Amino acid sequence: MTQKTTILTLPEEELVHPGNRACAGCGLSIIYRIGLKALGRDTILVVPPSCLTVLQGLYPIAATQLPCLNVTFASTAAAATGVLGALRAQGRKKTTVAAWAGDGGTSDIGIQALSGACERGENFIFICYDNEAYMNTGVQRSGTTPQGVITTTTPIRGKLQKKKEVPAIIAAHGIDYVATASAAYPLDLYDKIKKAKTISGPKYIHVHCPCPAGWGFDPRYTVKIGKLAVETGLYDLYEIEKGKFQLTGPSRKLDNKKRKPVSEYFKTQSRFKALSKKRIQEIQQSIDEKWERYQDQAG
Amino acid sequence: MHIIESGNVAAATGVKLARTEVIAAYPITPQTPLTEKLSELVDSGKMKAEYIPVESEHSALAVCIAASSAGSRAFTATSANGLLYMSEQIHWAAGARLPIVMCVVNRGIGAPWTVWNDHQDAISQRDAGWIQLYACDHQQIIDTVIQAFHIAETVRIPVMVCYDGYLLSHTYMPFEIPEQDAVDAFLPKFSPSYFLDPKNPANLNTVTLPDIRPDVRGNMAPGYMEIRNNLHTDMRKTISVVEEMDRKYQKTVGRGGNPLIEKYRCEDADFIAVCLGSLSYQLRDVVDTLRGEGIKTGVAGIRLYRPFPDKTVAAEFVNAKGLIVFEKALSYGNQGALYSDIKSALYRNDNRPFVHNYILGLGGREIKTPDLLHAFRISCTDFRKIGDDPQWIGLKL
Fold first, then answer.
1. Which residue among A41, A121, B4, B370 is the one 20 to 30 A from B332 at the CA level?
2. Protein fold of A27-298
3. How many CA atoms lie within 13 A of B388 on its CB side?
């Protein structure tokens, strides 16, 4: 994609109705609105239980103008497979099938079906919006909750274990397109979805998605905090195309010398309050080492 | 055309004749030869369908749920623990009103592991909102699979076609394959009134609230309880739909006549054995022997187990002195499921026969005809000896 989409070239047509059930400042509501514009009208969505189920509305009212199949928690990618099977059987081959799940529905309960669908080479886009905990059920830890984070099931010491690197797991399936994105950079996500639509086989896009209620920040700072995660080099935007890794957009432009200290990101959210100074230093060190590796790879 | 083949091949042939569009399955004994046959039919181009080799039974039914929601005829098959692994999806498919057909090749449930036949797998899913039909021979397997699609698509309720693992799945028997033209005349193309379609978008299986709620135009839409009541009401209507489909099948294919209960020498019988599946054939021998002894006996094989044909049961058995329910499953800590259902159906009659319950054949324990004869004879001649508790046949320790 040589031409980057700007706010001026973004399609005006809205596929999400104004007024939905998302919380104020919800990162998901940003990427859902922009993401559907990229997917376009000829798309069938598959959605497991998540905040998105609520955002999309309560029966008989729906907030989206795309057909959507709500499915059981563990079955998202298998259900997308079933839609694709029916479309092939009926000769409806142009329609895009997009699965849209949260981090729990992707990295924990949904990973078996996702792995199976990737191994089978199903022609679909799987979008994981990662708000780093089970938010819809009240902020319980998930496989992608970062180490040290306070959730309702890691209430005192914070999560003891590391964040699961789902994009790396999916990339290990050898699929042609894996990308990360952020709710703070929705146009970058838009372009990545548009690119994914041009590639056949499984496509996986992992979107970092700030959550005011779960992360403990004022709803007005959703974009600011999402950007900080990228600007501190903690959460990187990249693509892995046919196995080739490259940083993209704001992460690519990130001047390693001007990278902000990660403590600036941590202090904006109450979920990090259990992190000790020592632990923050260790995390800073691991980020520095990661960026040295990036530079070595680039150089 | 008559052939001699296995029960699994009979099922696969029915799936092919029904022009199934999407098949998803995960291997489990004794279902495997069925899915292997379907893979072969699709891979060789003899059957035009999508065969999706999924990574679990949960996903197998997920594929069928989604394919059916997108407007395609969908099939899967499983056994035992595979069926239990699907359980969440089984309930989902019924609630979503998807006319999926699934063969359940009946097998006992672990632990401890067993690969052999009993009925605990399907019985454990009887309250999920699926229609359950039990076949007792290979001919019934192929005919029931074909009919199952028509029944399912008429009432928009999924159907399990249950048949005994090994006893039917792996044994070879002669059966007739209906002509494709006859099947096409019987089974119309699947054309659901709504399906996943970008031109006519709908959000399927959304969250409901405890109460009813108006739509954007102000019209009241059903809530969870109305939606579930519709399922129950339509399940009750299914009994007559199964009878109607049997009549239509007789006209177009030329076979049928026992849509709800398959009876053998029941007309003047004082004592009737009741069971599910292939056991009814073994009991026919026992009935013949007892008849030779002057005891008027018969066998009733229940073909439609859910919805339960309770009024038919009450009417058919109104003159019997005793019903003896032989079962390969039970509700642990209570009694056989079929036994409870039979007793409940008879409660509406003024003159109720005694009802006995024998549990047998669990985990494939061999069911010996002399044991059946002995139990049946005691029930007929000395029925006061047997109480309400289920009696176990074939225990060795």
1. B370
2. Rossmann fold (3.40.50)
3. 4
